[in-house]
Input
Amino acid sequence: MPVIRSPSTALPTPSRLWQRRSVAAALVAMPALWLGPRAQPGRPRLATPSQTEGPFYPVAIPEDSDFDLLRNGALDYARGQRTWLEGTVSDMAGNPVSGAQVEIWQCDDAGHYHHPGDGGQADKAFQGFGRVVVSRDGRYRFRTIRPVAYGSRTPHIHVKVKLGGRELLTTQLYVAGDPHNERDFLWRNLRDEAARAALTVSFTAGSDGLQANFPIVLRV
Output
């Protein structure tokens, strides 16, 4: 008596076997689909810490208040270590804060500010204060000197950022590796190493004096 097989257990025909083998061979030959590396979450950005304005912000903005602190009107300042200070101004997402205004002010090479509270002893050839509007990509640049220590203060440059009529940040930047840092009360009071690193800048030799890069990150 012949054996009757149900459709579910029937043996595949030669044509079906050929089809299955063709599909399997095609799958083996198919190149693997590369989906790329798995996205890694970005590190959170640290907002630039704020610090006190200090007593020597200009009483009145000087007539010459451009990017070049080594030239005050017709006078050229030849003392100190010439420095190009530059950086970017961005928000917490990394976007440039176009139109922001960056101001800096500092003492001259003898440790004096253009301010009546400092006795009016600052060298008249040193502009002492400058401000610029950042470019569309958030960049700014100043020509100045490497800051110097005076009294109990370590070398520092004061920085203020404005946008329209708002003050977004007031802080101070410091010189990396300067021996006065550890004795400076404001530098020591920065809450952790990350905050200190955000405000402590390397001043390195370049083709036209020292170079210092100070990126500014704002909560806006």
Observations:
- The two ends are 89 Å apart (CA to CA).
- DSSP finds three helices and twelve strands in the chain.
